[in-house]
Amino acid sequence: MEKVMKNVQNDITGKVAFLSGASGFLGQEIADGLASAGVTLYLNGRNEEKLKNLSDTLNQKGYKSFIAPFDISNEEEIKHFIKNFKENRLDIIVHSAYSGLSGTIETSSSNDFIESYQISVISIQNFIKAALPILRKAKEKFGDASVINISSMYGMVSPNLNIYKNADESNPPFYGAAKGALIQWTKYAACEFAKEGIRFNSISPGPFPSLEAQKENKDLMTEIKKKVPMSRLGKPSEIIGPVLFLANPSSSYVTGINLPVDGGWTAW
Asked: Which of 6, 88, 132, 247 has the highest CB neighbour number within 10 Å of its CB?
């Protein structure tokens, strides 16, 4: 058993991965998890300084990472990145990028919905179209290619607005709508590319509030914990295992799933 587990853990060593939203709260944990597993990691986001700090931290640990500072919601910038991509393969894509505020239906604008959908869904659609040739090379030459989209439990269920004090705190309707669309897009992609062996799956994190949010909204955190069967918030490091599982060729028969990582939130 020990030998088998060692082989599984080493399965993504030497692979090439692209991570959008890399400097975000969960993105940083995902970056550390992938890099520590031995992949060559390209860190994407719009803030070059944050990406550089993250890359420096990873590389000081002996990992191999590069920054890819561009706006993934811009199709031309995606094409430019792929055209100048130094690797001849891309084994793993993790799409974690998101940008948006709080709100309710009453306070949200149409532009809120457009921007949320643009970064969550249209960006990965455009990126996959551009990256297909190198994804296919990874599958043909190395046996596996995996795309992992980071959705949300609110792409599956609605937030309970009763736990929020006002619209300024509420998880907004455009967030869940975009994340729900991302889950559906992932299933469609899984079916379209299944015959080629390129796998598409999504992960739906539950309550993983930032440390700042936990300090500033203690009453809200208490209410959130009550809704979790495990009675606690998620730890950022707890997103790494699910990502590595879906990135690993040992999950080669897994495609089209949405994996909740929510402490049981969506189970009751």
From this structure: 247
Instruction: Write a three-state SS string for the chain.
Output: CHHHHHHHHCCCCCCEEEEECCCCHHHHHHHHHHHHCCCEEEEEECCHHHHHHHHHHHHHCCCEEEEEECCCCCHHHHHHHHHCCCCCCCCEEEECCCCCCCCCCCCCCHHHHHHHHHHHHHHHHHHHHHHHHHHHHHHHHHCCEEEEEECCHHHCCCCCHHHCCCCCCCCCHHHHHHHHHHHHHHHHHHHHHHHHCEEEEEEEECCCCCHHHHHHCHHHHHHHHHCCCCCCCCCHHHHHHHHHHHHCHHHCCCCCCEEEECCCHHHC
pTM over 0.70: yes
- Residue 8 binned pLDDT confidence (cut-offs 50, 70, 90): very low
Question: Which two tokens mark 262?
Answer: 């929510």
CA nearest neighbour of 184 among 207, 205, 206, 200: 200
Each residue's pLDDT tens digit, 133-153:
999 999 999 999 999 999 999
